[in-house]
Automatic annotation (TrEMBL):
It holds the Pfam family GST_C. Residues 18-105 form the GST N-terminal domain. Residues 108-232 form the GST C-terminal domain. PROSITE patterns: GST_CTER, GST_NTER. This is Glutathione S-transferase N-terminal domain-containing protein. It comes from the Bacteria.
Length: 232
């Protein structure tokens, strides 16, 4: 037996190779962050599809790994000091995998914290604001007659995109090289197309963001990651 096979989540999503890092996810922007990081680093792993239905994310088995009931989450049987580690929250997972592999996060203290600040920018701004815009524009909130919530999130999304546009002026990536800041942020650009809201936020008016997003999508690891685990 092992930490993975002993964990309650294994009863619903059994590991075929419990010695590998286990990914429990779905290809949403937050899920793609982690599959992208794993594909970019080449770290061996095994994926498990956890859908967004309450049957999955609110199941006792998944809540035993992530009490917040959100994908993604991981179990690394070979964590720090050789001890197993169960971890949730996509930003925390990106930082962990960067430190574990020594990739996509500069060892220089100044550049390291500058990179982390852009990860936090995504976690605290882009993810929540883009997600709220999508809900009010394309999903349940579309039936609300009061337009103020939609207008609020639309304006904030535009503001955040303008921050990215300025940051990417003269840069290929959010830092001097490709990093976890890009891996955290770029998958959320895909969500705007999914919501059908691109024209409302002036998507074509930001050439720096568009070029950056194209560079990101052209990476072979990203082309694999956007369908891990497969939707179908």
């Amino acid at each position: 037996m092992s930490f993975v096979t002993d964990h309650p989540i294994n009863a619903r999503w059994p590991a075929e190779t419990p010695d590998l890092l286990q990914l429990y996810s779905f290809p949403t922007p937050n899920g793609i962050k982690v599959s992208a990081m794993l594909e970019e680093t080449g770290l061996p792993y095994e994926w498990h599809k956890v859908t967004l239905s309450d049957e999955d994310v609110k199941s006792p088995e998944f809540l035993s790994l992530n009490p917040n009931g959100k994908i993604p989450a991981i179990i690394d049987p070979d964590g720090p000091g050789g001890q197993p580690l169960a971890l949730f929250e996509s930003g925390a997972i990106l930082l962990y995998l960067a430190e574990k592999t020594g990739q996509f996060l500069s060892p220089d203290p100044i550049r390291r914290y500058q990179t982390i600040q852009w990860v936090m920018f995504q976690m605290g701004g882009i993810g929540p604001m883009f997600g709220q815009l999508g809900w009010f524009f394309a999903f349940g909130g579309a039936d609300i007659e009061d337009e103020r919530p939609l207008e609020r999130y639309q304006k904030e999304t535009i503001r955040l995109l303008d921050v990215l546009e300025q940051r990417l002026d003269g840069r290929d990536w959010l830092m001097d090289v490709y990093s976890i800041a890009d891996i955290a942020t770029a998958p959320w650009m895909r969500a705007l197309a999914h919501y059908g809201v691109q024209s409302e936020i002036g998507w074509k008016d930001r050439p720096n963001v568009l070029a950056w997003f194209e560079r990101f999508n052209a990476r072979p690891a990203i082309q694999r990651a956007i369908n891990i685990p497969p939707r179908e």
